[in-house]
Design goal:
Helix content: over 70%
CATH architecture of one domain: Orthogonal Bundle
Largest sheet: 2 strands, antiparallel
Number of helices: 4
Radius of gyration: 49 Å
Number of strands: 2
Strand content: under 5%
Shape: rod-shaped
Strand order of the largest sheet: 1-2
CATH class of one domain: Mainly Alpha
Structural class: mainly alpha
Length: 156
């Protein structure tokens, strides 16, 4: 699109800034006629002073179209606040999960060590039980022998 030239009197060349009817502008921007009126009130579009007021300048319409395109591009490529907060939450959850896995691994190692120590204690208890039984048997045998000798001595 050609940029409007400024003649020596400072006015825009009419050939380069055509008027666009508000209905056509609404269709181009994909909004209602009422929205076009609001945009005119906010200064986002300019009325064409050469016509009856139901037209906007082509230059302001093109600027509004470019602004919408730029905003759409920014929205499409810039992460939204919701996306950013979701990403942050996901990162925190991932860290928490990693911590839980590490703690589970430590607990699992601790359980394995406890199980090994328990097995060693069971083996040691069985060995001591066997020694105790053997010692009791020797004691009983010695007591029997002793009692036999006493019996013979008493009868003499």
């Amino acid at each position: 699109m050609a940029t409007p030239s400024s003649p020596s009197n400072g006015q825009v060349d009419e050939r380069e800034d055509d008027a666009v009817h508000v209905d056509q502008a609404a269709k181009a921007l994909e909004v209602s006629r009422r929205t076009i009126e609001r945009m005119l009130e906010r200064g986002e579009l300019e009325r064409d002073p050469r016509h009856d007021g139901a037209t906007v300048t082509k230059r302001s319409l093109v600027a509004a179209l470019e602004e919408r395109r730029d905003n759409a591009t920014r929205r499409r490529f810039a992460p939204s606040q919701d996306f950013t907060s979701l990403l942050s939450s996901l990162e925190r959850l991932t860290e928490t999960l990693a911590d839980e896995r590490r703690q589970l691994a430590v607990a699992s190692d601790d359980r394995a060590q406890i199980a090994q120590e328990r097995e060693q204690a069971r083996v040691e208890a069985a060995r001591l039980q066997a020694e105790l039984e053997a010692e009791r048997s020797r004691r009983e045998e010695l007591e029997r022998r002793l009692n036999r000798r006493r019996w013979w001595r008493l009868s003499d």
